[in-house]
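Sequence only, no structure available. Ideas?
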Amino acid sequence: MARRIVRVFGRAERDTIGLMPQPSPRARRLLTGFLLLLVTAFLALGAWQVQRLFWKLDLIARVDSRVNADPVPTPARAEWPEITREKDEYRRVTATGLFQHDRTVLVQAVTERGAGFWVLTPLRLPDETIVLINRGFVPADRREPADRIASELAAGPVAVTGLLRLSEPGGAFLRANDPAGDRWFSRDVAAITAAKGLTDVAPYFIDADATANPGGLPVGGMTVIAFRNSHLVYALTWFALAAMSAAAVWAVHRRKLV
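Reply:
I predicted one. Tokens follow.
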């Protein structure tokens, strides 16, 4: 009885397929060509994401080596045009000079310590060039110079060690910098330079390390280094779509043979 039912259903399936309108040979060729094009495109996108994955892993390794390397002198004026994000950002550097506390800028920040400000102060180097130093974080209720008076009164040359960072032009998401109102949402070197009337300023700033400042403020060493790396997920997605498209090609030809 069971075998008879199977035979009946098998004949019914074939009869149903036979009654279904069959695409013309030209339509089948067009569909097959389109599906093969999708397979090729998805495979190419998957391969591209694999390349991006290895590029990102190499970038992470290079940044990690820079962060943990011995500090080198901050790039001099002659080197400024050659500075790039890929080659120089997060390089550990050191600089010695005099702080210009009267030109300090506060940049709004949200950190693991809560909301507050980065304290950016120009450091005049022996060659008379200037580099902005992100001396660290202060809470919103400690923003006034009097709240960090011990570090503001430090006289004489100071040595700063930290990470080289490139400028952050424009502002934060949906919040543009307001130089006229002295309201800053990003560490925009060019805009801060113009607003404070500075000249011969390096096109980068330095995030000071965790060396304690007199009086405990600002708090340095709070650079967050994080790289989003979803390329493997994207690659697997593209390869899965390629496999589905290849299965569709097989289904088209199977229907032709039924």
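The two ends are 26 Å apart (CA to CA).
Hope that gets you unstuck.
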